[in-house]
């Protein structure tokens, strides 16, 4: 699924194109994607309203609308948001919602239809539990080594499951957790409370670095991800362990191992990661 770098890549494109444009018309082909409103309520709240700003926290996109209600989107597995300028071609396959704007249109597409859209109050808590309980964003100044160290001390979970938990740090998913643990030379099986201060600092640096590199490379496209202009990311070329089971570790040449951990496929080097 799209993780922080992919969602940030989409956000940057949309932020460059959407602010100042108004939503003129909304066509909803799959109403159940909207989690807390009917199609009629959704369209009525957003129609003829101006988009002010596109923000992101963790893997959520927050479209600030000039009005009491705004739009929150989680792309889940295969959701994609693309802004098209005219002239329009036919709608792409698996397109689910069309936002006709004063100039151009924004398309929400989704092959597996697991994505979520919510109407939310423009200020204050959103009422969306997964969003309101998010921990500090992995790229924000609030996510510090001291914060991470403090959180790790309190739990005996494995570090893999800790990092996937969005209430600890927002934005990481399977790909960037595996890559960050490799960069920090920590086995995904390590218990959090057994991670010392120096290692916690190394892990913090690794998390920030893999996320920032992911953004620089326009996100990772394993299968479905495309950015806000409809193009694939390039970061898949920089992965060291994710999706590389049985292939040599780029540092020591040992074969990368694949296990199931915290219910998720997990890749690591048994030699480099202790
Ligand atoms: Zn290795």
From TrEMBL:
Q: Which cofactor does it need?
A: Zn(2+)
**SMART domains found in the cross-reference section:** Fapy_DNA_glyco, H2TH
Q: What residues make up the catalytic site?
A: 2 (schiff-base intermediate with dna), 3 (proton donor), 59 (proton donor), 264 (proton donor)
Regions that span the bilayer = none
Tell me which InterPro entries the record gives: DNA_glyclase_Znf_dom_DNA_BS, FPG_cat, FPG_Glyclase, FPG_N, H2TH_FPG, Ribosomal_uS13-like_H2TH, Znf_DNA_glyclase/AP_lyase, Znf_FPG/IleRS
Q: Name one GO biological process term.
A: base-excision repair
Note how many cofactor molecules are bound and how: Binds 1 zinc ion per subunit.
Ranges for domain FPG-type come to 240-274
Domain named Formamidopyrimidine-DNA glycosylase catalytic: residues: 2-115
Pfam families attached here? Fapy_DNA_glyco, H2TH, zf-FPG_IleRS
Query: GO terms for molecular function, please?
Result: 8-oxo-7,8-dihydroguanine DNA N-glycosylase activity; class I DNA-(apurinic or apyrimidinic site) endonuclease activity; damaged DNA binding; double-stranded DNA binding; zinc ion binding
Q: EC number(s) of the enzyme?
A: 3.2.2.23, 4.2.99.18
Catalysed conversion reaction: 2'-deoxyribonucleotide-(2'-deoxyribose 5'-phosphate)-2'-deoxyribonucleotide-DNA = a 3'-end 2'-deoxyribonucleotide-(2,3-dehydro-2,3-deoxyribose 5'-phosphate)-DNA + a 5'-end 5'-phospho-2'-deoxyribonucleoside-DNA + H(+); Hydrolysis of DNA containing ring-opened 7-methylguanine residues, releasing 2,6-diamino-4-hydroxy-5-(N-methyl)formamidopyrimidine
Q: Where does DNA bind?
A: 112
Q: Which UniProt keywords apply?
A: DNA damage, DNA repair, DNA-binding, Glycosidase, Hydrolase, Lyase, Metal-binding, Multifunctional enzyme, Zinc, Zinc-finger
Q: What NCBIfam families does the entry give? A: fpg, PRK01103.1
* Role, per record: Involved in base excision repair of DNA damaged by oxidation or by mutagenic agents. Acts as DNA glycosylase that recognizes and removes damaged bases. Has a preference for oxidized purines, such as 7,8-dihydro-8-oxoguanine (8-oxoG). Has AP (apurinic/apyrimidinic) lyase activity and introduces nicks in the DNA strand. Cleaves the DNA backbone by beta-delta elimination to generate a single-strand break at the site of the removed base with both 3'- and 5'-phosphates.
* Protein family according to the UniProt entry: Belongs to the FPG family.
Assembly mode = Monomer.
Q: What is this protein called?
A: Formamidopyrimidine-DNA glycosylase
Q: Which organism is it from?
A: Megasphaera paucivorans
């Amino acid at each position: 699924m799209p993780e922080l770098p992919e969602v940030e890549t989409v956000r940057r494109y949309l932020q460059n194109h959407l602010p100042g444009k108004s939503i003129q018309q909304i066509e909803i082909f799959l109403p159940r994607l909207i989690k807390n409103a009917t199609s009629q309520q959704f369209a009525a709240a957003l129609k003829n309203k101006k988009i002010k700003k596109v923000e992101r926290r963790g893997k959520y996109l927050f479209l600030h609308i000039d009005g009491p209600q705004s739009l929150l989107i989680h792309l889940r597995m295969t959701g994609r948001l693309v802004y098209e300028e005219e002239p329009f071609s036919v709608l792409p396959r698996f397109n689910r919602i069309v936002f006709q704007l004063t100039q151009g249109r924004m398309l929400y597409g989704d092959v597996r239809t697991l994505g979520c859209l919510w109407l939310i109050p423009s200020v204050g808590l959103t009422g969306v539990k997964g969003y309101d309980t998010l921990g500090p964003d992995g790229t924000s100044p609030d996510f510090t080594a001291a914060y991470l160290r403090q959180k790790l001390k309190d739990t005996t979970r494995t570090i893999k499951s800790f990092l996937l938990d969005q209430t600890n740090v927002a934005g990481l998913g399977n790909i960037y957790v595996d890559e960050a643990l490799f960069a920090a030379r920590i086995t995904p099986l390590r218990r959090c409370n057994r991670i010392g201060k120096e290692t916690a600092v190394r892990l913090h640096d690794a998390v920030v670095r893999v996320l920032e590199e992911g953004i620089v490379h326009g996100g990772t496209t394993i299968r479905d991800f495309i950015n806000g202009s409809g193009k694939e990311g390039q970061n898949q070329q920089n992965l060291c362990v994710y999706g590389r089971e049985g292939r040599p570790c780029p540092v020591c040449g040992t074969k990368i191992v694949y296990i199931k951990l915290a219910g998720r496929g997990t890749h690591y080097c048994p030699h480099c990661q202790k």
